[in-house]
Specification:
The protein is mainly alpha-helical. It has 14 helices and no strands. α13 runs antiparallel to α14. The termini are far apart.
Length: 363
């Protein structure tokens, strides 16, 4: 009856207006089949059937195009939505396009595809096939770059290991050349003595010990010359005094041995600036330390150099640590005479306010 047909058409308008359709096939099967049973032959209904048949065909075509794309590309664009499209409705499937309109006739695009509020047919997700192809290219490029980055990271790790291994091999050549280890890389007595030293360059100190550098020095002179070995960590005196005549020969010997050690480093492939290496063992504090060991007061030390009081105390305490390590090295060598001399140097050095447990004076 006409009332029944009008009821069906009204229901269709409600469905289209509220965007309840998931895809074109569902629209055709669930809503337009009743028109066929009712025998409605009005032009509006025929036009609606034609449009939805075209939408079903277009939907199948887009389905086939999407299946030819890699699955990862579909995942990349699946989360995007169109302002007038599937996200506004109950959510269109990735293989279909939705239909929107004001009545049975609906608004359609020129190609007869599925329509939305703006009249443009697109694959699900609001992306055109050209956009999907472009994204596929970008994704392929990204994957290629990630593979290259992983390869470079592996290569860099290998290079770092090779550099570390090469540095170790070069240092082993230095130790072998100076007699701290043998050809089997077994640590010798000289190497054990070097292992006792931490406050200075252990290779240079071991070389000085085994050359008998301290044998002819007095305890005060030994302590004064050792101040050069900790000078690299201390504040430099801008206008140092000329070393005492008695200290100049051992200082010259110290520079000669340091030059030889620097050359051994260079020959082994370890980049070393010879002049810079020798300058690390500055002799600016030798007179100050010698005077302190000879009984000078702390006020006289402050007047004899430009250093702050705290810097002087720090330097002497650091020197005291080195002398303790030299005593341990002498003990490892079995040199009791050198051990006694260095012990006397420590006794001369550790006195007065420099080694007071507290700088606060009780009134």
């Amino acid at each position: 009856s006409p009332e029944s047909r009008r009821g069906v058409l009204h229901a269709l308008r409600q469905v289209f207006a509220e965007r309840r359709l998931a895809d074109a096939s569902a629209a055709r099967q669930l809503n337009l089949r009743p028109l066929e049973h009712l025998g409605d032959s009005s032009p509006a209904c025929k036009r609606a059937m034609g449009l939805l048949d075209a939408a079903v065909a277009r939907e199948a075509q887009l389905d086939a195009e999407l299946r030819r794309l890699p699955a990862v590309v579909l995942m990349d664009v699946g989360g995007e939505t169109d302002g007038d499209g599937a996200s506004g409705s109950n959510g269109a499937e990735a293989s279909g396009a939705h239909v929107d309109g004001a009545g049975c006739g609906g608004a359609a695009n020129g190609s007869g595809g599925a329509t939305n509020g703006s009249g443009a047919g697109r694959p699900a997700g609001g992306a055109t096939p050209a956009t999907l192809v472009e994204r596929e290219k970008r994704l392929s490029r990204k994957q290629l770059l990630q593979q290259q980055a992983a390869g470079l990271a592996t290569e860099a790790a290998g290079v770092a290991c090779d550099e570390f291994g090469e540095t170790v091999r070069r240092m082993q050549r230095v130790l072998l050349r100076l007699g701290l280890v043998d050809s089997e890389r077994v640590v010798l007595l000289k190497g054990r003595a070097a292992a006792e030293v931490d406050a200075s360059d252990e290779v240079l100190v071991a070389e000085l010990l085994y050359r008998g550098f301290f044998n002819e020095l007095s305890p005060a002179a030994a302590a004064a010359v050792c101040s050069c070995l900790v000078a690299a960590d201390m504040e430099k005196i801008k206008r140092p005094q000329t070393p005492l005549p008695a200290l100049q020969p051992p200082l010259a010997t110290l520079r000669e041995v340091a030059t030889e050690v620097a050359r051994v480093y260079t020959d082994a492939g370890i980049a070393t600036d010879e002049a810079e290496y020798v300058q690390r063992f500055d002799s600016g504090m030798v007179n100050m330390v010698h005077a302190w060991c000879e009984g000078a007061t702390f006020a006289e030390l402050c007047d004899s150099c430009e250093l702050f009081e705290g810097s002087i105390i720090r330097a002497i305490r650091r020197l005291s640590e080195l002398l303790d390590e030299l005593k341990s090295a002498a003990k490892a060598m079995g040199n009791d005479e050198l051990f006694s001399k260095l012990e006397e140097s420590c006794r001369l050095l550790r006195r007065d306010i420099v080694f007071a447990s507290s700088l606060y004076v009780e009134m």
